[in-house]
Amino acid sequence: MDIILVKLILAHLIGDFFLQPTSWVKDKERKKLKSGKLYLHVLIHVVLIFIVFLSFNVWKTALSIGVLHLIIDASKSLFQTKKNARILFFADQVLHFGSIVFVWHLFFKGYLDISYLNDVKTWFLIVGVLFLSLPTSIIMKVIIAKWLPESDDESPKSLQNAGKYIGILERVLIFVFILTNHFEAVGFLLAAKSIFRFGDLKEAHDLKLTEYVLIGTLLSFGIAVVVSFMILGLVR
């Protein structure tokens, strides 16, 4: 990746996540365009670009990114509500990174090499990750549905759909560990989950629930391992 683009991204990360206190974010949400913190935040981004480049010759780049950053943040503050706050957070970051790439291309003639999208190995990896997410969750649900304990209701102490997302994360991590030849990390992950999960089940004194969770865990790990080795063989 071009060093100029890396520096621009670094300046953004420092400005948006390290030098923006929570109080500033709340002030922008409350006062919107009248918030002085909004303009101070943009000014910090501009100054950071001068700092990372150690030069004032990039003033056009700094000013352009500053203006685009102001437009994006101002738009977010105007349209953000409690319901769409999460979506707008990610949309905001996508637009910021997109504006950085645009300015980099405009002033430095940079371009992103996306030739890897024509490589079949890339698509094997994408298929592997996607299969281990929701499709595997649905497959597992169908397989172990007949063993679902009658007393396994939604518990107010449990986060909604937490089990599904924990399963997806663990399978994706296994996929990454195996493809990067860190097999010991798979064992560590299984041990860590066993300590946290089965400790709670032991206190619950529910044999059927314990067996149900054990079947689900081993099935999840088993599918992840098999799929990971299949993809590993294909990409090699």
Structural write-up:
With 236 residues, the protein is mainly α. It folds into two domains: 3-108, no CATH class; 115-235, no CATH class. Helices cover 77% and strands 0% of the residues. It contains ten helices and no strands. α6 (120-131) runs antiparallel to α10 and α8 packs parallel to α10 (207-235). The protein is extended. The two termini are 25 Å apart. The model has no long low-confidence stretch (mean pLDDT 90).
Q: How many discrete domains?
A: 2
Shape field? extended
* Amino- and carboxy-terminal Cα gap: 25 Å
Summarize the helix and strand pattern as letters.
HHHHHHHHHH
**Poorly predicted spans:** none
Could you provide a short overview of the structure?
With 236 residues, the protein is mainly alpha-helical. The protein is 77% helix and 0% strand. The protein folds into two domains: 3-108, no CATH class; 115-235, no CATH class.
Break the fold down into its secondary structure elements and pairings.
Elements: H1 3-18, H2 22-31, H3 36-53, H4 59-79, H5 85-108, H6 120-131, H7 134-144, H8 162-179, H9 183-204, H10 207-235
What characteristics describe this protein?
236 residues, mainly alpha, 2 domains, 10 helices, 0% strand, extended
